[in-house]
Amino acid sequence: MTEHIHDVIIIGSGPAGYTAAIYLGRAGYRPLVIAGAVTPGGQLVNTTEVENFPGFPDGVLGPDLMDNMQHQAEKFGAEIVWDDVVSVDFSQPVKRLTVDGGDTYQARSVVVTTGANYRKLGVPGEAEFSGKGVSYCATCDGFFFREKPIVVIGGGDSAFQDATFLTRFGSSVTLIHRRSEFRASKIMVDHAKATGKINFVLDSVVERVNGSDKDGAESVDIKNTATGETTTLPANGIFVAIGYKPTTGFLNGALPLDDHGYIKVEGASTRTAVPGVFAAGDCVDSVYRQAVSAAGMGCHAALDAQAYLSE
């Protein structure tokens, strides 16, 4: 166990974590960022071109954006540890965090920015064509599929929101859902149907994503769960919208979570129920889930942590 007690430790990286580190570093707190070993940098590391992050009129590659944020945090004194937090003890004023490598770190305050992962289909071709047709963010990637056939997989509000948004790009938009009834709210369903631009394939599941190395995704194999019949549907853009899973399992009850596993915070702040522990980004936000909103929350968390430390 390290004997040194840090003023603040940030668990996680990505836009929220690195933004918090930049602010805390500039304030002189020399934050320790436990950035992760498996997926440091968050979801943007697996994203190709990002065109909706302010300040980049020509777009920026996701990994490049995260590298720049990391280097900016380090410039202001942040220290990066490439490991994953596996357990925490927030029961005392000095918090303790244990990482996968076995080391334990101590801090007076903690900012949790561990994000969330997209739920995936787990079918052949999904991983192979991720970033080459398969996407988990309609607002990020819809533009790349102008006048191309698009499918959206899911039956909740997110799927209907994505399908409606994508009608402005695709030559066709087909929503595929495993059941005959939707989980989405009635107003979302009615709005999507009112566009007249969305086809619905119900009682069906995607079994495979097909394509080529040269052209990317080209079609999906669909199985009707009622009849067992399998068909192939042309699709260059496959948007998976079956939910998110916040990365909060390592907390093991140390912080209150909502019914879906997101960390609860007080109002519009980033304060959790534990004094000195703050949370920001997609491990809190189940609504917007954008890089720029996560960065904004990271700023809030840094300012909340500064206020706590100064007290």
TrEMBL record:
Cofactor: FAD
An example Gene Ontology molecular-function term: thioredoxin-disulfide reductase (NADPH) activity
One GO BP: removal of superoxide radicals
Catalytic activity line of the entry: [thioredoxin]-dithiol + NADP(+) = [thioredoxin]-disulfide + NADPH + H(+)
SUPFAM superfamilies in UniProt: FAD/NAD(P)-binding domain (SSF51905)
Entry EC number(s): 1.8.1.9
Gene3D superfamilies documented for this protein: FAD/NAD(P)-binding domain (3.50.50.60)
GO cellular component, one term: cytoplasm
Cofactor note: Binds 1 FAD per subunit.
Domain FAD/NAD(P)-binding: 6-298
Domain of life: Bacteria
InterPro entries in UniProt: FAD/NAD-bd_sf, FAD/NAD-binding_dom, Ferredoxin-NADP_redctase_2, Pyr_nucl-diS_OxRdtase_2_AS, Thioredox_Rdtase
Keywords: Disulfide bond, FAD, Flavoprotein, NADP, Oxidoreductase, Redox-active center
PANTHER family registered for this protein in UniProt: THIOREDOXIN REDUCTASE 1-RELATED-RELATED
Sequence similarity: Belongs to the class-II pyridine nucleotide-disulfide oxidoreductase family.
Name of the protein in question: Thioredoxin reductase
